[in-house]
């Protein structure tokens, strides 16, 4: 697995953050004026943005995380649903399955009625791949989870079409069958920040598994593939000792810039 470079991390982090506002001007970030397609959910809210430009090989699929009370409630649907009708031979979290399988409201003149979020995303991405693009996928929270499923489906349909997957604060996706059959673990980077509780969900040992390389951003360093139990233990210990750390002289030295030069 190749390493994730800093500029790549920053690019995907910025796109993930900017996916949440209602209006997104893709031209400010180097994409073509007509280089954006939106995939909406059953209520017409944006779930997926697909971005591209003619002079770049890479097209980017950006997927939002939970952004409504209903979406958050879906996180409690912790039973498994099969993905066979997506062309995938494994099961995933029922809440993520619902997000993918819900009907997508048309947002573009090319959009057809009756397609799910999954089907519309695959249709738009397939057209880009057939025109020579490779696909990078990034998503936050549940968006990262469903992004992995979309990426795997595209890879099965168009081998070597996926460039990389970068997720932020992503919960686990599916059972051991998912972990075993997921084809893109070597291209997947899962970013975790400090004690982000969502990255420990669903809290059912051995029923849910993560995939790819985990990069844990903690105490000013990057740790690779740190087990969840170790992450949790270090974070809790850090919380317990933090009040005492403010007594260290290094803290007083670090804060010298608060004083004016005289």
Task: Please tag this protein with its features.
AB_hydrolase_fold, two-stranded antiparallel sheet, 8-stranded mixed sheet, alpha/beta, Rossmann fold, 262 residues, Sec_MonoDiacylglyc_Lipase, Lipase
Mind explaining what this structure looks like?
- The chain is an alpha/beta fold and 262 residues long.
- The chain has helices at residues 6-18, 69-74, 94-101, 117-130, 142-157, 176-181, 228-245, 249-254; strands spanning 36-40, 46-51, 58-63, 80-82, 91-93, 134-140, 162-168, 188-193, 213-218, 221-224.
- It has one domain (6-226): Rossmann fold.
- The protein is built from 8 helices and 10 strands.
- It has an 8-stranded mixed beta sheet, with helices on both faces.
- The chain starts with 5 loop residues before the first helix and ends in an 8-residue tail after the last helix.
Summarize the structure.
The chain is built from eight helices and ten strands. It has helices spanning 6-18, 69-74, 94-101, 117-130, 142-157, 176-181, 228-245, 249-254; strands at residues 36-40, 46-51, 58-63, 80-82, 91-93, 134-140, 162-168, 188-193, 213-218, 221-224. The strands form two sheets. An eight-stranded mixed sheet has the order 1-2-3-6-7-8-9-10, sandwiched between helices. The protein has a two-stranded antiparallel ribbon with strand order 4-5.
């Amino acid at each position: 697995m190749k390493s994730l470079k800093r500029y790549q991390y920053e690019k995907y982090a910025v796109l993930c953050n900017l996916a949440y506002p209602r209006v997104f001007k893709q031209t400010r970030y180097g994409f073509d004026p007509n280089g954006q397609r939106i995939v909406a959910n059953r209520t017409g809210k944006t779930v997926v943005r697909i971005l591209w430009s003619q002079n770049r090989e890479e097209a980017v699929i950006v997927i939002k995380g939970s952004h409504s009370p209903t979406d958050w409630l879906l996180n409690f649907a912790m039973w498994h649903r099969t993905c066979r009708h997506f062309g995938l031979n494994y099961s995933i979290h029922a809440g993520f399955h619902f997000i993918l399988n819900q009907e997508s409201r048309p947002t573009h003149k090319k959009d057809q009625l009756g397609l799910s979020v999954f089907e519309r995303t695959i249709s738009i991405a397939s057209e880009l791949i057939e025109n020579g693009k490779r696909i990078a996928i990034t998503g936050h929270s549940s968006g990262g989870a469903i992004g992995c499923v979309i990426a795997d489906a595209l890879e099965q349909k168009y081998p070597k079409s996926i460039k990389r997957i970068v997720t932020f604060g992503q919960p686990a996706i599916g059972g051991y069958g998912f972990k075993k059959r997921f084809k893109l673990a070597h291209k997947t980077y899962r970013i975790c920040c400090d004690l982000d509780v969502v990255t420990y969900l669903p809290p059912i040992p051995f029923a849910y598994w993560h995939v790819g390389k985990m990069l844990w951003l903690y105490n000013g360093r990057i740790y690779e593939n740190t087990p969840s139990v170790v992450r949790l233990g270090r974070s809790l210990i850090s919380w317990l000792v933090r009040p005492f750390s403010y007594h260290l002289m290094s803290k007083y030295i670090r804060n010298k810039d608060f004083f004016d030069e005289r």
